[in-house]
Write a structure and sequence with these properties.
alpha/beta; 527 residues; 3-stranded antiparallel beta sheet; 5-stranded parallel beta sheet
């Protein structure tokens, strides 16, 4: 184990230390990581975030301890379908099966043996598309095969104790019917939330009454004839599989506490857990699938590469973050900077790119041009195709093409799409003040005169940036940031942008001079 790993302050290594301590205390030599999935809907951006973050912790655990581990992606596909999703066909058919386990409902898409099987397949394809290493587990398979039978009988023996743990958290109506054991109706197939009249631990059955017909039933707890209410189910799974680590969202804090209490009642310690913050929309409101106020993974990947999404998910998981379109450029540029710094980093384990790429410094992952820079270029030239950007890129970086810079090629396509949908419709230039006019004229004249003396070791972009900075200092801007606000808002029609010297180098000195002069003439004519 290297000293860098031991001293790493990155959050995945801090989590790995907690897991290592748990295994040492229990005398285990292999760790089980778990992520849970409710398959009533299709995989979404939160699914990616949870599996990605868990995978980073798992990799850190491996490097820290050298011990083997597994990641189990567990689908709660025995849950009863509570409502018909909005994004599926054959809704009327699904309404006839409300309350049944998803694996006992026909597939509305007509491709698989059940709705649960369809969504489980989508989950696995989704995770494989991102290169995650995992084992898939189906609640239906685990219940029906008998794999959970011993744990279910153990739950039955502790039935009343579990009820006492849960009851204080319930309303009066739910208290009257609560049991951790939910029998599946032998005639209708519906998961029943009914009072349990009696638990027969010796025979492994529960007695209950159908509230609609008054018919009394005795149902086996084992073999898939019943399932557990989800907090008890979560706890039972931790108990049965001896799960070592699982993370979940802030909205499940109380559930984690209750499930942990149930595990202890069953005689084991709960896993190490991490609570991550939920995402907010552009107005600071919690994202809700029913409201549709968030950003889908398909939308993110339309406008930026998957690595940028991983960068967004890596940063400060326990801090609430806005998940909207305007965070994409920053996340993309943060990733580009991190992956560029990775090969020479003294402490690579502190670099998010190390975690994103599984500890390997990838080839051809970076870009000589930032995403925000490309967006500004696309905005100025009104780019509607990648070819329009490539002409400028080749002048800036001779020999650059899609083959030599494959990641840059992705960025170019994304920049055209992002500019088309978000930058161009909102672009709004403002008139310059008298001070700003003077500074802009100074910029144009200085560029014409070739005042930018390049010092040894400097790139043209750095030389131009120094010139831009010097011009700002020559004029009464307070603070100096106001000069750069002028450049973005007056010349580019945006509120922010990249280092302007880099933009000049990419766009071209002569074109920048023309841009400044044309802008000033336009506002003079409008005055």
């Amino acid at each position: 184990m290297s000293e860098n790993i031991v001293q790493s302050q990155s959050w995945p290594f801090r989590e790995a230390e907690r897991i290592a301590a748990r295994l040492k205390a229990k005398g285990k030599t292999e760790a089980l990581f778990e992520t849970g999935y409710g398959p009533s809907g299709l995989p979404h951006i939160g699914t990616f975030g949870e599996v990605a973050r868990t995978s980073w912790v798992r990799k850190a655990f491996t490097d820290l301890t050298g011990l083997p581990s597994r990641l189990l992606a567990f689908s709660d596909d025995m849950d009863g379908l509570r409502k018909v999703p909005d994004n599926v066909p054959n809704k009327e058919m699904l309404r006839q099966h409300l309350g049944k386990p998803l694996t006992r409902i026909p597939d509305p898409f007509g491709k698989f043996e059940s709705f649960g099987a369809h969504n489980n397949n989508m989950l696995q394809e989704f995770l494989r598309a991102f290169g995650f290493e995992f084992e898939f587990a189906s609640a239906t398979d685990y219940y029906a095969s008998g794999r959970f039978d011993a744990a279910l009988l153990h739950v039955a023996r502790h039935h009343d104790e579990i009820v006492r743990i849960i009851l204080p958290t319930l309303g009066a109506e739910r208290k009257a019917t609560y049991s951790p054991i939910l029998p599946i109706h032998p005639r209708t197939g519906v998961v029943m939330q009914v009072p349990i009249d009696r638990v027969d631990v010796d025979h492994g059955t529960v007695f209950w009454t159908d509230p609609e017909t008054g018919t009394k039933f005795e149902t086996s707890i084992t073999g898939g004839s019943a399932k557990l209410q989800w907090k008890a189910d979560w706890a039972m799974r931790w108990y049965a599989l001896d799960v070592d680590y699982e993370m979940s969202g802030k909205d499940l804090i109380d559930s984690v506490k209750l499930s942990s209490s149930i595990v202890r009642a069953l005689g084991k310690e709960p896993p190490v857990t991490l609570t991550y913050e939920l995402f907010l929309d552009d107005k600071g409101q919690k994202i809700s699938k029913s409201k549709g106020n968030g950003l889908s993974i398909e939308q993110w990947l339309t406008y930026a590469p998957k690595e940028s999404l991983a960068q967004f998910m890596y940063h400060a998981p326990q801090r609430a973050k806005r998940l909207f379109f305007d965070v994409i450029p920053r996340a993309t540029d943060d990733y580009i900077n991190n992956v560029q710094a990775l090969p020479t980093a003294e402490k690579p384990h502190e670099n998010p790119a190390w975690h994103i790429h599984g500890g390997v410094s990838p080839e051809h992952a970076g870009s000589p041009i930032g995403f925000t820079m490309l967006l500004n270029l696309a905005s100025v030239i009104n780019a509607d195709s990648p070819d329009m950007l490539w002409g400028f890129i080749r002048a800036y970086a001779p020999g650059a093409n899609a083959e030599s810079y494959p990641f840059l090629a992705q960025l170019v396509h994304h920049a055209v799409a992002y500019n088309r949908d978000f930058v161009a419709p909102t672009k709004q230039h403002r008139a310059p003040s008298e001070v700003e006019k003077g500074a802009l004229l100074d910029l144009a004249e200085s560029l014409k005169a070739g005042e930018q003396a390049q010092y040894p070791g400097e790139t043209p972009a750095e030389t131009l940036q120094n010139l831009v900075y010097a011009i700002g200092k020559r004029h009464p801007f307070a603070p100096l940031k106001a000069w750069f606000d002028c450049l973005y808002q007056v010349l580019l029609g945006t509120h922010e942008g990249p280092r302007f010297g880099g933009f000049i180098a990419l766009y071209g000195v002569e074109r920048t001079i023309a841009l400044v002069e044309d802008t000033l003439k336009r506002w003079e004519a409008a005055a």
